[in-house]
Amino acid sequence: MVLNCRHVWDRISDYIDGTLDPAVRADVEKHLAHCEICSAVLDSTRNVIVLMADDRVFELPVDFSKRLHARLDQVLATERPEPV
Amino acid sequence: MTTPQVRAEAQQEREAALIAAILAGEREKFHDLIRPYERQVYLTSLSLVKDEAEAEDVAQEAILRAYRKLASFRGDAKFSTWLIAITLNEARTRLREDKRAALDSLDNQIEKEGDYTPAALTDWREVPSDALERKEICALIQQAVAALPDAFRQVVILRDMEELNVQETAQALGISVSLVKVRLHRARLLLQKQLAPQLKIELKSKKKSGMLRRLPWF
């Protein structure tokens, strides 16, 4: 099946995750091979996903861990887990 | 060879042993159980509660709740999935209390409408992850994620930032796998549309100023 750009955009996410069925994947690849716009959409989407997964984007607030474990200490010292 | 599956099984065994010890009275071991998940709990909380201080508060409450309810963890789901579900509940309760919860009907509309045309940049050049050393690049990404509709942000944070698989994401959010996929796809395209042009400009401006910075007299 010959796909147009819109068809390819609709499948970008599944393409990146590798969940397209092989026949559709082949059609998408055929389109990507000659369409500069869709190749750029694919590359930039993939790039955004890689950047987003990086721990440096959303850092924990300073001393988050320290405050959490201090609070836990108080609770652990006085409470046991509830019985089922 | 350690495959991811072998590692996951080893982790699950280690957690099961910790949980058994905690329930048997070695309460301080809860610190060790929770340590690998602090970031995940915080991000999950931030997917609903956008204010950082409140997200931290929700994260703490969720972790305390997980401790108190530990005996009810059955081990049929992964500990992380259980913990995320508790965190989402805690965050939703908080939002309801604040009467700021988005109406479900609004969430449902999102699925049907909207223009999901991506940004078409034929001269796209990859943004290297080194660029994240720059606070303004991180800020652009944070703002774009925060600006997503709630339903999309939750999915994209769990799936692409916390790197849960689609089944785990669906389980944690209590929605179907197909809905996870639809929301994830739209969220990713919205992020691409918003971010790709901005990142391109930021990177170009860096190249110019980078030249100047390398000169010793600047």
Write the layout of secondary structure elements.
The complex is a heterodimer of chains A (84) and B (218).
Chain A: H1 5-17, H2 22-34, H3 36-52, H4 64-78
Helix pairs in contact in A: 1-2, 1-3
Chain B: H1 4-23, H2 30-34, H3 38-48, H4 52-68, H5 79-97, H6 104-112, H7 135-146, H8 150-161, H9 166-173, H10 177-214
Helix pairs in contact in B: 3-4, 3-5, 3-8, 4-5, 5-9, 7-10, 8-9, 8-10, 9-10
General description of the model:
The complex is a heterodimer of chains A (84) and B (218). Helix content of chain A is 69%, strand content 0%. The mean pLDDT of chain A is 94. Chain B has two domains: 127 residues, RNA polymerase sigma factor, region 2, helix turn helix motif (Rna Polymerase Sigma Factor, Chain: A); 90 residues, Arc Repressor Mutant, subunit A. Chain B is 69% helix and 0% strand. Chain B is elongated and about 60 Å long.
CATH architecture level-2 label of the largest domain in chain B: Orthogonal Bundle
What overall form of chain B do the CA principal axes indicate? elongated
Task: Show the largest interface.
Answer: A-B, 44 and 62 residues
- SSE series of chain A: HHHH
Individual helix count of chain B: 10
Beta-strand content of chain B: under 5%
Total number of distinct structural domains of chain B: 2
Overall mean confidence score, pLDDT of chain B = 86
Largest sheet of chain B: none
Q: In CATH, what is the homologous superfamily of the largest domain in chain B? A: RNA polymerase sigma factor, region 2, helix turn helix motif
* Helix and strand composition category of chain B: mainly alpha
Number of strands of chain B: 0
What percent of the residues of chain A sit in helical stretches (DSSP H or I)? 55-70%
Strand-residue proportion of chain A: under 5%
What is the CA–CA distance across the termini of chain A? 57 Å
CATH level 1 class label of the largest domain in chain B? Mainly Alpha
By DSSP, the count of extended strands of chain A is 0
